[in-house]
Amino acid sequence: MDSPNRWTTHEPRRAVAVVGTLMPHMAAERHHVYRNVIALALLAALIAAAFGSLSIALVLAAVALPAAVLTYIHDHRLWHDEPLTVIAVTLALSLVLGVGVGFLQTRFTRGIVLAAGHHRLPPMLRILELGVLVPAVAFVAVLVAPLLVTARAAFRHPMDVVVTCALSGAALSLGLSVVVQHGAFTHLQATAGDPVGVAFIALTLGFLQPVILATAAAVAVLGFRSTGLNPAVGVIEGLVLVVLYGLATTLLQPYGTRGIVLTAFAAFVLAGAGLLAVRTALHTAVDTAPDLGPVEHRLHGAVVAGIIVVVVLLAAGFTAAVVFSGPLTEPKPPRTGPVDGVVPTPHALGGGTVTFVDGVTLAVAPGWTIVRSSSTWVVLANRDNNALMEADSGKSAMPDITEEAGFRAGLATNGLTNAVEEPQGVQTLQGKNFTQSLQVNYTANRQTNQGTMQLYGTWTTLFNASTHIAGFIDFRAVSPDAFQAALPDAKSMLASML
């Protein structure tokens, strides 16, 4: 049996924790049941991540919290006379709103995902869209269901407010994550993603993100439903939590796998701050609220664990069935044709010239800008930000072009996985700097916290057996159409290096 009297300021407060904060009716002796079963689901997600399966790992992590909250509501007989209000409004409405926010976010992420790993901040407009606008919309969306439900007297108690917000945050995050990561569900290929990246993406989107959304909603709605709290302060605290999370995700994405790990750390800190804010607000709200009366739990701990485990496994099994039962249609690498041996002049291209340390030059095509550069390499992006080209030149470490070609290593360095390649064979050139080329057309995936995207590209190795100078050009785009549209510029820039 549990009583709200334990919330008085005369008794010690519990430590800030996910279970004790988002499911506040729970007695102390029941914490380990819910905590252990959520930990078990996260362990299963890490096992799926070890095999590189982002879709299954994400679902295992993302379903655990809503399953625990729903089981907790049934276990403690909360709102047992109005189950449809809880399920149809709080869960279903928030899930649908999460899908809508996900589609909004995908409108802005294509160029950002393409350039991930290049240590260059996105344009300011993209930072405002992904780091401020989308989080603000998500914050409003996560408030809709709790405000509707808690408008009724039966759901107005502060502890019920927190539970409603916990369910809303978990459901909205699930819908948002599945839409944003739709590429992980639709592009199944023979090889898997990077286990480290998959694990941290699943942990961030599946567990930490719903905690952030739930706590942001809770501090805001508690302000509206409690006489002892300032609603403006609650709204500001909740909005700041979500916006800081969005900014951290957007600003850290250019750093590749390191950025994914740092985003998880930032989300962990923000989730902790959100839990602390909810605990503080809930103590104040309960002190001024009417007595809730005793709350009992009616299920054995093993039954609670069994229900949550079954729900999570069913969701993971359904995901696996959807992913693995579909037709295995690998996307075909793009067609490029041979390397053009005609060298255009910088004046013909009109975009400036890049000079490498070995004397090789690259004439930049009009509309393309330099993203990053050094004495040996350069990264360029086109005007539409849907195509990228990396080029470098220097002394060869191998005696021939076939050994020098570093296609697989280059893709791994750039954080690309699931590559499907079509080598084009060695071609003889009549250039001043290079006499051979080896071209590999490919498709590959890039996985980030803001989406999994199919990329289309071509990797070209240039070689001169006499001078032992080698060059590497990686040109890729976000779609076959974008690839073909930017291909003439890429070929001109490549030819200018010859």
Brief characterization of the structure:
The protein has 498 residues and is an alpha+beta fold. Helices cover 55% and strands 15% of the residues. The protein is built from 16 helices and nine strands.
Spell out the key features of this protein.
single chain; 498 residues; elongated; two-stranded antiparallel sheet; Protein Transport Mog1p, Chain A; alpha+beta
What would your notes on this structure say?
The structure is a single chain. This protein has 16 helices and 9 strands. It is an alpha+beta fold and 498 residues long. The chain has 2 domains: 4-325, no CATH class; 346-497, Mog1/PsbP, alpha/beta/alpha sandwich (Protein Transport Mog1p, Chain A). It has a 7-stranded antiparallel β-sheet. The chain has a two-stranded antiparallel ribbon with strand order 1-2. The protein is elongated. The relative contact order is 0.13.
